[in-house]
Amino acid sequence: MCPSKFIVPVADRVANLPPYIFATVFQMKEKALAAGREVVDLGVGNPDSRAPRNVVAALNNAIDDHSWNCHGYSTFRGLPQLRRAISQWYGNRFAVTLDPETETLPLIGSKEGIANLMRAYLNAGDTILIPTPCYPAYFGAAALCEAEIAEIPLREENGFRPVLSDVPADLAAKARMLLLNYPNNPTGGVCDLAFYEEAVRWCRENKVILVSDIAYSELGFDDDNMPVSVLQAPGAMEVAVEFQSLSKSHSMAGWRVGMAVGNAEAITALGRVKSNVDFSLFGGIQMAAAEALTGSQQVCADNRKVYEGRARKLVAGYRALGWNVPMPPATMYIWARIPASYGDDDFRFISELFEQTGVLLSPGSGFGAYGRGYCRTSLVTDDAGIARVLELMQKAEIKWG
Ligand SMILES: Cc1ncc(COP(=O)(O)O)c(C=O)c1O
Fold first, then answer.
1. What spacing in Å lies between the alpha carbon of 116 and ligand 1's midpoint?
2. What mean pLDDT is reported for the chain?
3. C-alpha–C-alpha distance, residues 317 and 326, integer Å
4. Residues with Cβ < 8 Å from 71, sequence gap 6 or more?
5. Is 45 in the pocket of ligand 1 (CB under 6 A)?
6. Domain 12-50+299-395 is in which class?
7. Residue 111 CA to ligand 1 centre (angstroms)
8. Pairing of strands 258-262, 333-337
């Protein structure tokens, strides 16, 4: 680390943040763009779609509505209209009953909420169990609490679900929080209600908060087997907080709308942290989010079809190259072992691929220790973009098998 030129160095908790591998990837991209090279970025999971018209209209209506003023500060706990909409959506989608007053909380994106829940419950030195590979923001959020991160493996042979009975007793005894994310970023792995029931039992036995992140719940590709909520499991309300997001399901990533639902005491604690660091979402966006949750859900079905179609095309194309990747059952990602000739060196694979083609994938080690040897493709380009990616990759001198 270079010595600080500023009058005071940053706090230890910032200095000790884990290295962010994607920063290096980002630099590779910037350098190539500055040199005028063609770059196709399939590294980041930033949806290329737009929010539905009814949602945009609701925002505009709120801005122009003179019967109330959405331009001032909102209330700390968010508008009652949005809390009711969250409760209604959970009822319709999962048959889960939530008290809008005490068991729901609007968030400025689920990333913020997850980090602030950690702040509410993790003291310095406390242990958090993070199954990996995972959404990398979990690491930074836990590190800012100066918590001990214990990675537990998500293995392909177990459908990328953790085997909780394998968690050593001493680790289970000291853990305070377990993070589950299904459908899973980056693996695309899914889980069923039986898995959540077991996780709830395990967390109750071990006195561990179960944090469920279902940011991709609307992007499951099997219409007859849609992803479930942890709150459907008996007893979940006693131990669980679930985070949902409109970013991927409703193509609203830049709007920053998420929600926390679940145990009322934990929701209050999260609200307490938030009331000290933010002022909830812009009122216009809250009205638009309420419309997104209570209006037509066609956008979710459309997004599912788009991502599934892209996954099928890219998987078929990769296989035609000789790279045998699995078709994901959900999400907007393809998670695959890197070609055997690279061993476990995912960073070397994605760097060489980028150098030769301009196609940027994410290195698996950026998602945690158990991501090593894999890479992630984000399905954020349309059919023409996919055709171009495959054309570029065909020319690369890479041994895919
Ligand atoms: C698993 C997972 N959780 C949460 C988020 C953050 O979502 P939001 O936009 O609601 O902050 C992401 C974003 O990529 C994600 O992949």
1. 14
2. 96
3. 12
4. 63, 283
5. yes
6. alpha beta
7. 6
8. unpaired
| Phi, psi of 17, rounded to the nearest 5 degrees | -60, 145
Ligand 1 atom with the smallest distance to the CA of 184 is 1
pLDDT higher than 60, residue 1: no
Question: Spelled out in words, what is the top-level CATH class assigned to the domain 53-294?
Answer: alpha beta
Regarding the beta carbon of 110 and ligand 1, being less than 6 Å apart is answered yes
- What are the residue boundaries of the structural domains of the chain, listed by start? 12-50+299-395, 53-294
Residue 12: pLDDT above 80? yes
Residues 381 and 361: beta-carbon distance below 8 Å: no
pTM over 0.90: yes
Cβ of 41 below 6 Å from ligand 1 = no
Residue 118: alpha-carbon gap to chain centroid: 16
How far away, in angstroms, is 110 Cα from ligand 1 center? Answer: 6
Give the number of the atom of ligand 1 that is nearest the alpha carbon of residue 247. 9
Q: What is the pLDDT of residues 76-121, one digit of tens each?
A: 999 999 999 999 999 999 999 999 999 999 999 999 999 999 999 9
